[in-house]
């Protein structure tokens, strides 16, 4: 369904990916935006029970986009070290693909995380 990673030596194990997601606090959510253009937005997240939760406003571009198309990807950068003398960078990130949904029920939302308000698991 999804393309294989081109640089096989840099593939992280599932456990390493989970560690990155648990350590991180922010990432970039990408959805299908207005007029078919991609829409990517940086935001804070929480990782719990193999799900990613976002706290967000009840209206806006992100919510409208998810209502139209639930498919999304989310990227977290764990390491980004540029080494000029080696003409390289040491980089580690995790990209997840999934379907975003909005949790409308306040009690369910509070049960899922420590935040109040809207949440979108991916």
Describe this structure in words.
There is one protein chain. The protein is an alpha+beta fold and 122 residues long. It has a single domain (10-121), classed as Electron Transport, Fmn-binding Protein, Chain A (Pnp Oxidase, Chain A, Roll). Helix content is 20%, strand content 43%. The protein is built from three helices and six strands, in the order αβββαββαβ. It has helices spanning 14-23, 61-68, 106-112, and strands spanning 26-32, 38-48, 51-56, 71-83, 88-99, 118-121. The longest helix has 10 residues, at 14-23. The radius of gyration is 16 Å and the shape is globular. The two termini are 17 Å apart. Pfam families: Pyridox_ox_2 (PF12900).
| Overall shape | globular
CATH architecture group name: Roll
What Rg is obtained from the alpha carbons, in whole angstroms? 16 Å
Question: How many domains?
Answer: 1
Helicity level, as a percent range? 10-25%
Please, what is the average pLDDT? Answer: 86
Q: Within the CATH hierarchy, at the fold level, what is the topology?
A: Pnp Oxidase, Chain A
Q: Give a short account of the largest sheet.
A: 6 strands, antiparallel
Distance between the termini: 17 Å
Strand content: 35-45%
What letter string, H or E per element, gives the SSE order? HEEEHEEHE
Widest sheet: strand ordering: 5-4-1-2-3-6
**Spans of at least 5 consecutive residues with low confidence:** 115-120
Number of strands: 6
Q: Specify the number of helices.
A: 3
Helix/strand/pairing class, anyone?
alpha+beta
What is the top-level CATH class?
Mainly Beta
Pfam families: Pyridox_ox_2 (PF12900)
Protein name: Pyridoxamine 5'-phosphate oxidase family protein
Organism: Kineothrix sedimenti
């Amino acid at each position: 369904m999804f393309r294989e990673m081109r640089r096989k030596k840099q593939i992280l194990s599932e456990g390493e990916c989970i560690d990155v997601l648990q350590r991180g606090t922010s990432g970039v959510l990408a959805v299908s935006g207005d007029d078919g253009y991609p829409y990517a937005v940086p935001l804070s997240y929480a990782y719990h029970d193999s799900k990613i939760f976002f706290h967000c406003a009840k209206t806006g571009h992100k919510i409208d986009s998810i209502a139209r198309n639930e498919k999304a990807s989310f990227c977290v950068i764990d390491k980004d070290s540029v080494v000029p003398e080696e003409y390289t960078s040491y980089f580690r990130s995790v990209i997840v693909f999934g379907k975003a949904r909005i949790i409308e029920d306040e009690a369910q939302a509070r049960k899922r995380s420590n935040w109040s308000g809207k949440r979108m698991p991916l």
